[in-house]
Amino acid sequence: MNIFVLVKQVPDTETKVTPNAEKTYIDTTSIKWIMNPYDEFAVEQSLLIKSKIPDANVIIVRVGSTRDTEALRTAMAMGADEAILVDSSDNLDSFMISKALKGAIEKSGKKPDLILSGKQAIDDDCLQVPQILAQMLGLPSVTVVVGFELNGDQLILKREIEGGAQEIYQVNLPCVVACNKGLNTPRYASLPGIMKAKKKPLATYSLADVGVTDNDRKVKYSNFQLPPEKPPGKKFDALDETKIDSVVAEVVGLLRNEAKII
Amino acid sequence: MANILIFTETSKESVKSVTLEILGKLKGHSLDVACFTELSETALSDLKKFGAKNIFKLNATGIEKYSPEGHANALKEFIKTKSYDYVFSGATSLTKDLLPRVSVSLDTGMISDVVEVNFEGDVFKGKRPLFAGKCLATVEFTGAKPGFVTIRPNALGLSDSTSAGEAKLEQVSVNKGEVKAEVKEVIKGKSEKLDLTEASIIVSGGRAMKNSENFKVLQELAEVIGATVGASRAAVDSGYADPSMQVGQTGKTVSPSLYIACGISGAIQHLAGMRTSKIIVAINTDPEAPIFSKADYGIVGDLFKVVPALVKEFKKLLNK
Question: Does A74 touch chain B (CB under 8 A)?
């Protein structure tokens, strides 16, 4: 059984981001990179399957810059068997990333039985790649998955929709599953795991190797900028309990008369 | 004048409010609407008022519940019979899943979660947040038509000046095609409230809530002002709130008109997820908490005393 897990490497959530001088992307010089947090649920799910189906082979695939291989090494240290990196610039659109992933999976020569990913990457927040890749491969896909049950070739999946409601899907392998927080609790990489990861195979392909050119671009980004700063607001002291009622009355009054929203 | 299709969903008797935001913003272009669900008289008159030209009710058997493949096949089949420059929609739970599938099956591009819409002549140029709003960028299409655009609810606002359209209703038969992933059942959520991503008022609790039981304090406030309750990552990771309630870079990015942050210190990843809220009220005992730097109205105090006082005051104001 071949399980492909798609991971992306993104700036740490505590990182401040600023546009680069050309405004074509963010300044990447002093960023701490981590595995996209939603992808950790996908890696964990693959390892949970592997613990029940020992001959399952977990292959991590990432499209992105070679400047740091943190995400791939983390995934292998958690227990994945091998990894593929498609070397690319940071500014591919969702279509190009999906096409590169498809090319990399095909080039690996292994037929995917299951493809897992996070529901979204927290850098471009597009929520597109799992669905686009599935369509390209002619596979069914279910996104925002918070429940996962594999019986033989059949999957029962819970997809979270609005207001915490859920849709229950039944689907046969092979398919693409995009994972959400709440699905499982990702394990930490152990020290022996980290040592072992260094010896695990990591293949590197170029975009040309996987058949992606600049003609595949469908969306163009420019003029990266910081959001406008808000002017400082009003602050009221209500630590002294006798002031609470008057402060609250004032704030509620401001919400109605100044902000005009209540 | 661009030829635009707006895909809409309905919620109770009305079309989703974001649809009307889009129609108002795109005034001056040729605007058609497509929908899979029944449209009430209210929905139809709203669409007319906001300038819809043709309204296509898409009918297919076997997709009464949402079917990712079935809806994608049916919508693709319909769009192929027309020649739209763009397909717009609100960024909702359904369209986030659906539209990437439709766009790739037409070999076109999609731009998610746009917060600012501009046109240069007939050519769309928008702005969208990245890194959960820590950055914004200009986006445009380079590929074939139609380009797919989803709009973040509440980002454009409802336009005051509208010009009515013909609103000609047409029934269209479409096919669901091959469906491999089948929805067996839909389990209702605990709350009937609007989803966080669409809510116009949000009351959120952080680590200072101390336990899940205490979220009742926020529920009570939410009830009075018609809000949806959210939570910070700290509150979710401590088990005080469900992951579906999480606001922030690793949860939901929201832009309500009013965001009330209770006992939330304001980690950078939380601020990123709610900074586009129009008005932010923060309640925290620590006067140095970073949340106050983003708050329009900050109350330094104990949320367990301040929130009940807010409930009382809002009840008075709203005659409840």
Answer: no
Using a CB–CB cutoff of 8 Å, tell me whether A143 touches chain B: yes
Instruction: Rounding to the nearest 10 degrees, give the CA dihedral for residues B46, B51, B56, B62.
Output: -40
- Residues of A with CB below 8 A from B182's CB? 169-171
Per CATH, B3-173 and B201-318 having the same topology is answered yes
Q: Does A147 touch chain B (CB under 8 A)?
A: no
Do A245 and B309 contact (CB within 8 A), yes or no?
yes
Q: Which of A128, A221, A225 sits opposite B139 (nearest CB)?
A: A221
Q: Could you give the CA distance from residue A85 to residue A64 in angstroms, rounded to a whole number?
A: 7
The one-letter code for the residue type at B164 is: A
- What is the biggest distance separating any 2 CA atoms in chain B, rounded to whole angstroms? 60
**pLDDT given at position B45:** 96
Domain B3-173 matching CATH 3.40.640.10: the answer reads no
* Percent share of chain B, pLDDT over 70: 100
What span, in angstroms and rounded, lies between the C-alpha atoms of B161 and B243?
A: 39
Please measure the distance between the N-terminal and C-terminal CA atoms of chain B and give it in whole angstroms. Answer: 48
B283-294 per-position pLDDT tens digit: 999 999 999 999
Residues of chain A with pLDDT under 50: none
pTM above 0.80, yes or no: yes
Predicted local distance difference test score (pLDDT) of residue A171: 98
How confident is the model at residue B189, as a pLDDT?
A: 82
Q: Do A94 and B100 touch (CB under 8 A)?
A: yes
pLDDT of residue A30: 87
Confidence at residue B13, expressed as pLDDT on a 0 to 100 scale: 85
What are the residue ranges of helices labelled H in chain B?
Answer: 17-25, 41-49, 68-80, 93-105, 215-225, 233-237, 268-274, 303-317
At the second CATH level, the architecture of B201-318 is 3-Layer(aba) Sandwich (3.40)
* Alpha-carbon Rg for chain B in angstroms: 21
Nearest CA in chain A to B307: A248
The pLDDT, as a whole number, for residue B193 is 80
The residue ranges of every structural domain in chain B are 3-173, 201-318
- B265, B290 in Cβ contact below 8 A? yes
